[in-house]
Write a structure and sequence with these properties.
This protein is mainly beta. It has a single domain, classed as Immunoglobulin-like (Sandwich), CATH 2.60.40.10. The chain is built from no helices and 7 strands. The strands form 2 sheets. A 4-stranded antiparallel β-sheet has the order 1-7-3-4, with no helix packed on it. A 3-stranded antiparallel β-sheet has the order 2-6-5, with no helix packed on it.
């Protein structure tokens, strides 16, 4: 299992309670058809699992709904 993390800190903010997305490029670590899970940790520490769609090219579209402004952490496993 691999764990990759990145930090989201959009100075302009995000639209709260509106689905947003990001892409995980796992081509170097996950063979095509592999399984990826993504979690988003909000500024308050609340962790939410993102909905993940396999793009069938080694990348994965991840969607979640933010409920807080501020810096969040993405964790991909």
């Amino acid at each position: 299992m691999y764990e990759l993390m990145s930090v989201c800190d959009d100075a302009a903010g995000v639209f709260l309670e509106s689905t947003t997305e990001f892409t995980v490029d796992a081509r170097s670590v996950v063979p095509r058809g592999g399984k990826v899970k993504a979690f988003v940790t909000a500024p308050s520490g609340t962790r939410t699992e993102a909905l993940v769609n396999n793009n069938n090219d080694g990348t994965y579209k991840c969607m979640y709904t933010p409920y807080e402004q501020g810096t969040c952490l993405y964790l991909y496993v």
